[in-house]
């Protein structure tokens, strides 16, 4: 009964159909559209995978008054800009590290704390306070960050009991992205097994300091040098 | 284009299916246009909420996510929205929408850091795209998802799976799940399309049927219209015929009315001179020493009187017949003694019977009611007619009446058989006998006289009295007529045995009333326009001792009556003729009564029908008598009302 029914669409004979040149233009427009989107995606992905600045000069625990090296456990320092939205992923990854390592790890979260700005109660600080077995340290004007070479929010540094730097890098797979990543795995593996699978990963996040070169370190703290 | 009867059904089914699909495509295009627009707004909103700024120390910048949401999101939804608005229903539009929606999923997955929950957007989008019921759209979207997964899975796995470890197996697994969903969606799309095809075919069939039905209805309507026109034509013809018939009836009724009026007037006009003729014939016979007059004179006067009487009976018959024909004849229902009535008639007819040496015998068969309810005048008229005929056509032998009560309650009837030993009626005449103006042959009227209306009127009267008149038997040895009438209700009625009935004394032969001085001291106003009647009636009244004043019309009568009342000597009785010039008796009586006059007014009219009497009474008359006047009756009537008024 229905076998004879031809089911093809009849757009070619529909009224108001797009003419052949019109269709070519449409195809071109669609192609351009796809290319533009692909370009924009590529740019976005490039941004998300563009690692932040870093300085790996602190191969050993630098002497400082703010944070003491725990010689009984590995020491993990996580530098966070309290306003960086990407660092939510870092703190979530840190939560996972803490879940895996617990008290086997001496963890410090170091929050950049510029003079004159009240950034002690941001959503990131509150999130950090929820993570078990971590210590919160306010880094006045980013002195510690400068000292440890952590110039990008989310930069994590793992030091052994004897103060050697075991790992340096980000603990997220990309900017603001959580999930399985080399940084987290390396830290957990070292703490649990004492093995280092990866020493360096890229750090994805906001720059902690405006211009690291402008910051002079002195015994009294930090001050901005006028240009 | 709807389906015509001669168009292939499949063509129309294809057309309907395409129309249905097109409407689905357009509808879904618009739905996606709105969805993508809201997705874009939601993306911007989430970006503004989650990461409005990126920071470099103290310095803040608009976060690249905002630009991503604005620019990439805008790019993704721009072209699909434009195409949905400008080219809805087009293949390129839905394919672009499929690509756009897949890219929106890709962007969302990326922005949500490759969280597995974000991947549900892909499945949701595919399910939504299934609204198109076009498997090609699903394939396009799935291809975009597959390419995105494979490419990003290899190049930037973090953005897709949230891990930095690239792996094509995972991409394949994700693509596999997409294909898994596609299988079901494409299957359901296929089923849906098949159902759409079925629906399209059914609709095409229905349209075809509808077209057939419409054609049928059109044909039927045309036929009905034709029939309606025929009916209308018939109706118009019928109406025309009805109108013609109505006109004919009106004309006939008019003619009938004219005839009735003519008859009534003619009867009145004839009765008036007859009153004078008969009255003065009586005066001639009764005045002076009539026995001294020559025999020829007496015979001449008697001839005048006899012919006058015959003329009166002829007029009466004609009037009765015309009333019966017009259906305006009304019978009264009065109690009367059947024995007494029959005895009166026998006594009345006996004189004529004896002239022919005949005897009238009355026989009662079984008990009969003492009183019955009927119209005694009409019953008397029927019996008189039957006996008159019987005597007329019988030369020797006898005439007999056999009275009996027949039937069972409540349908009991009085049956009277009138039998003569006369000449009989021929067979051919039996059927025509009750038709008007019919006699056995033309010579009958010459030999026996009569109008030929008697039996016709009698039969009609018998019908009006709830019975019938038939010929029971006829031969050369004689004829028997059977009259049957309804005696009315017979409960609480005493019955008389035949012997008692037979022995009932005959009513005393009415003696002429002693009219001399019967109206002495009475003052009577005679209102009458006819000079002959004025002279006759005033002569009779004066002879009876009355003082008579006269008026020529109703107006003068009215004035004289009022004047007499005002002078303190009112008239004892007013005799009022009803047909007069200037003011008739009806108007004069009504006017007098409205002025408060309460003396007796006796109507004199030549119109002898029952309704005429009623009309007189309604006009205010006390009583009524017909012309030609019966002297004794008139004097008795005047005396009675004068005495009643004096009391």
TrEMBL record, chain A:
Do the record's keywords include Transmembrane?
yes
Alphabetized InterPro entries for the sequence: Thioredoxin-like_sf
Q: Which UniProt keywords apply?
A: Membrane, Transmembrane, Transmembrane helix
Q: Which SUPFAM superfamilies match?
A: Thioredoxin-like
Membrane-spanning segments: 25-47
Recorded superkingdom:
Bacteria
Q: What is this protein called?
A: RedB protein
Q: Which organism is it from?
A: Bremerella volcania
Q: What is the phylogenetic placement of the source species in the record?
A: Bacteria, Pseudomonadati, Planctomycetota, Planctomycetia, Pirellulales
UniProtKB/TrEMBL annotation, chain B:
Coiled-coil segments on the chain, per record: 199-258
Name recorded for this polypeptide: histidine kinase
Q: What class of enzyme is it?
A: transferase
Please give the SUPFAM superfamilies that the UniProt record associates with this protein: ATPase domain of HSP90 chaperone/DNA topoisomerase II/histidine kinase (SSF55874), CheY-like (SSF52172), Homodimeric domain of signal transducing histidine kinase (SSF47384)
Locate the transmembrane regions by residue number. 31-53, 65-84, 96-113
**Ranges for domain Response regulatory:** 523-642
- Which SMART domains does the record match to this protein? HATPase_c, HisKA, REC
Q: What is the lineage of its organism?
A: Bacteria, Pseudomonadati, Planctomycetota, Planctomycetia, Pirellulales
Reactions catalysed, semicolon-separated, are: ATP + protein L-histidine = ADP + protein N-phospho-L-histidine
Compartment annotation: Membrane
**Is Cell membrane given among the entry's keywords?**
no
Query: Pfam families of this UniProt entry?
Result: HATPase_c, HisKA, Response_reg
Q: Where is the Histidine kinase domain?
A: 265-489
InterPro entries the UniProt entry points to: CheY-like_superfamily, HATPase_C_sf, HATPase_dom, His_kinase_dom, HisK_dim/P_dom, HisK_dim/P_sf, Sig_transdc_His_kin-like_C, Sig_transdc_resp-reg_receiver
- Residues annotated as carrying 4-aspartylphosphate in the record are 577
- Which key words are in the record? ATP-binding, Cell cycle, Coiled coil, Kinase, Membrane, Nucleotide-binding, Phosphoprotein, Transferase, Transmembrane, Transmembrane helix, Two-component regulatory system
Q: Which GO terms describe its cellular component?
A: membrane
Record flagged with keyword Methyltransferase: no
Report which gene this protein is encoded by. rpfC
GO MF annotations, alphabetized: ATP binding; phosphorelay sensor kinase activity
Give its E.C. classification number. Answer: 2.7.13.3
């Amino acid at each position: 009964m229905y076998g004879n029914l031809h089911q093809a669409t009849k757009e070619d004979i529909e009224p108001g159909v797009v003419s052949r040149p019109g269709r070519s233009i449409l195809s071109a427009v669609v192609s351009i559209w796809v290319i533009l989107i692909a370009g924009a995606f590529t740019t976005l992905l490039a941004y998300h995978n563009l690692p932040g600045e870093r300085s790996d000069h602190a191969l050993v625990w630098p002497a400082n008054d703010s944070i003491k090296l725990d010689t009984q456990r590995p020491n993990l320092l996580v530098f966070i800009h309290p306003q960086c939205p990407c660092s939510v992923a870092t703190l979530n990854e840190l939560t996972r590290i803490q879940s895996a390592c617990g008290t086997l790890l001496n963890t410090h979260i170091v929050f950049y704390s510029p003079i004159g700005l009240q950034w002690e109660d941001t959503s990131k600080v509150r999130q950090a306070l929820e993570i078990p077995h971590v210590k919160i340290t306010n880094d006045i004007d980013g002195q510690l960050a400068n000292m440890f070479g952590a110039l990008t929010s989310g930069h994590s540094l793992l030091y052994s009991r004897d103060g050697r730097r075991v790992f340096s890098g980000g603990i997220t797979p990309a900017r603001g992205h959580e999930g399985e990543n080399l940084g987290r795995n390396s830290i957990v593996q070292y703490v649990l097994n004492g093995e280092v699978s990866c020493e360096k990963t890229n750090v994805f996040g906001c720059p902690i300091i405006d211009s690291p070169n402008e910051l002079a370190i002195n015994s009294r703290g930090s001050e901005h040098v006028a240009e | 284009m709807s389906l015509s009867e001669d168009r292939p059904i499949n063509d129309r089914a294809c057309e309907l299916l395409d129309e249905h699909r097109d409407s689905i495509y357009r509808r879904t295009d618009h739905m996606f246009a709105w969805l993508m627009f809201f997705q874009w707004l939601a993306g911007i909103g989430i970006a503004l909420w989650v990461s409005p700024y990126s920071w470099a120390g103290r310095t803040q910048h608009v976060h690249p996510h905002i630009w991503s949401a604005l620019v990439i999101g805008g790019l993704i939804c721009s072209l699909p929205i434009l195409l949905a608005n400008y080219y809805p229903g087009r293949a390129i539009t839905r394919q672009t929408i499929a690509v756009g929606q897949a890219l929106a999923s890709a962007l969302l997955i990326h922005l949500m850091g490759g969280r597995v929950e974000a991947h549900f957007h892909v499945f949701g989008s595919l399910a939504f795209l299934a609204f198109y019921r076009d498997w090609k759209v699903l394939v396009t979207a799935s291809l975009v998802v597959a390419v995105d997964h494979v490419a990003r899975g290899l190049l930037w796995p973090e953005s897709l799976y949230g891990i930095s470890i690239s792996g094509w197996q995972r991409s394949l697994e994700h693509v596999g799940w997409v294909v898994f969903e596609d299988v079901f969606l494409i299957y359901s799309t296929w089923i849906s399309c098949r159902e759409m095809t079925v629906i399209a075919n059914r609709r095409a069939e229905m349209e075809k049927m509808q077209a057939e039905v419409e054609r049928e209805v059109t044909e039927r309507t045309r036929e009905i219209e034709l029939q309606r026109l025929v009916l209308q034509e018939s109706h118009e013809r019928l109406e025309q015929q009805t109108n013609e018939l109505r006109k004919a009836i009106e004309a006939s009724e008019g003619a009938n009315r004219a005839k009735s009026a003519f008859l009534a007037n003619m009867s009145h006009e004839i009765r008036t001179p007859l009153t004078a003729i008969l009255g003065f014939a009586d005066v001639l016979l009764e005045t002076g020493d009539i026995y001294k007059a020559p025999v020829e004179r007496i015979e001449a006067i008697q001839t005048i009187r006899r012919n006058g009487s015959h003329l009166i009976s002829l007029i009466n018959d004609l009037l009765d017949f015309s009333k019966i024909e017009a259906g305006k004849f009304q019978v009264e229902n009065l109690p009367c003694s059947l024995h007494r009535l029959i005895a009166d008639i026998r006594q009345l007819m006996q004189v004529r019977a004896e002239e022919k040496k005949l005897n009238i015998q009355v026989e009662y068969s079984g008990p009969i009611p003492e009183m019955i309810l009927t119209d005694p005048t009409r019953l008397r008229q029927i019996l008189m007619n039957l006996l008159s005929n019987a005597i007329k056509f019988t030369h020797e032998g006898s005439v007999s009446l056999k009275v009996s009560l027949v039937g069972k309650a409540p349908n009991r009837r009085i049956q009277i058989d009138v039998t003569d030993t006369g000449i009989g009626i021929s067979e051919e005449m039996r059927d025509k006998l009750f038709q008007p103006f019919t006699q056995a042959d033309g010579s009958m009227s010459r030999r026996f006289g009569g109008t030929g209306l008697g039996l016709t009127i009698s039969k009609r009267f018998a019908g009006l009295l709830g019975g019938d008149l038939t010929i029971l038997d006829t031969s050369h040895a004689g004829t028997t007529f059977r009259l049957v009438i309804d005696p009315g209700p017979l409960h609480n009625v005493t019955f008389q045995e035949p012997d008692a009935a037979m022995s009932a004394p005959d009513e005393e032969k009415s003696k002429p009333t002693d009219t001399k001085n019967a109206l002495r001291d009475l003052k009577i106003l005679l209102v009458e326009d006819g000079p002959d009647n004025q002279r006759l009636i005033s002569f009779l009244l004066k002879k009876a001792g009355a003082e008579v004043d006269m008026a020529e019309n109703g107006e003068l009568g009215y004035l004289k009556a009022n004047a007499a009342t005002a002078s303190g000597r009112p008239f004892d009785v007013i005799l009022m003729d009803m047909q007069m010039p200037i003011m008739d008796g009806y108007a004069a009586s009504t006017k007098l009564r409205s002025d408060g006059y309460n003396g007796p007014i006796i109507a004199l009219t030549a119109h002898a029908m029952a309704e005429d009497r009623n009309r007189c009474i309604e006009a205010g008359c006390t009583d009524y008598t017909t012309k030609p006047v019966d002297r004794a009756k008139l004097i008795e009537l005047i005396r009675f009302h004068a005495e009643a008024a004096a009391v």
